[in-house]
Amino acid sequence: MARAYLQGVEISASQFLDIFHHYDNDGNGYIEGKELQNFIKELQQARKQAGLELTEQMKAFVEEYEKNTDGKIGIVELVQILPTEENFLLFFRQQLQSCTEFMQVFLSAPVLKIFDSNNDGKLCLSEMARLLPDQENFLLKFQGVKMERKEFNKIFELYDKDRNGYMDENELDALLKDLCEKNKKVLEVNKIATYKSAIMALSDGGKLYRTELALVLCAEDI
């Protein structure tokens, strides 16, 4: 069945996993050696049978690995060969173990441009939220407490106690405690440490500037 999936114009998340596990015969987390050669051969055959050309990503992949018997690829590389939005979402949900880790990867991973749905070169809260595991999707929770720019600026200045232009962990902690108290139906007090850790991942060496906090709390661009 996995071979037939290679004929699809788009590949669903479940099909993607079936393909990976089918060709990772020994279950070591890589498609390598003969496994990789079989995958390349069957990928080319499947696309031809379906009347589909190899995509540019596929062509580059085949050129690099077709004669490389020592080559191997993991789930990251396969995602790039069979790129659908659902596959990228699945990959990030499986690979990232926490909100904090997600935010750290978010700052540096170029593949996240795929989730820039309005093509403005930035990810807004709703776009970022699509990447987090459902069970700890704190970004969606904060959508319910986002505020207008004027109110956000007042809040930032209020909790930036030393007026140095950024919040440290203690200042953010105070803000989150008050937000949780005020929005008990949306935010959970026992999750403050999680919220703080994830938001501070946006900071510059422990300095959370206005523009970074605005990603989470402001309804407008700063």
TrEMBL record:
What residues does the EF-hand domain cover?
A: 11-46, 147-182
Biological process (GO), any one? regulation of presynaptic cytosolic calcium ion concentration
Q: Does the keyword Acetylation apply?
A: yes
Q: Name one GO molecular function term.
A: calcium ion binding
Q: Which InterPro entries match?
A: Calbindin_Ca-bind (IPR051001), EF-hand-dom_pair (IPR011992), EF_Hand_1_Ca_BS (IPR018247), EF_hand_dom (IPR002048)
What Gene Ontology cellular component terms go with this record?
A: cytosol; dendritic spine; nucleus; terminal bouton
Entries under Gene3D superfamilies matching the protein: EF-hand (1.10.238.10)
Task: Kindly indicate where the leader peptide sits in this chain.
Answer: none
Q: What does this protein do?
A: Buffers cytosolic calcium. May stimulate a membrane Ca(2+)-ATPase and a 3',5'-cyclic nucleotide phosphodiesterase.
**Official protein name in the record:** Calbindin
Protein's organism: Denticeps clupeoides (denticle herring)
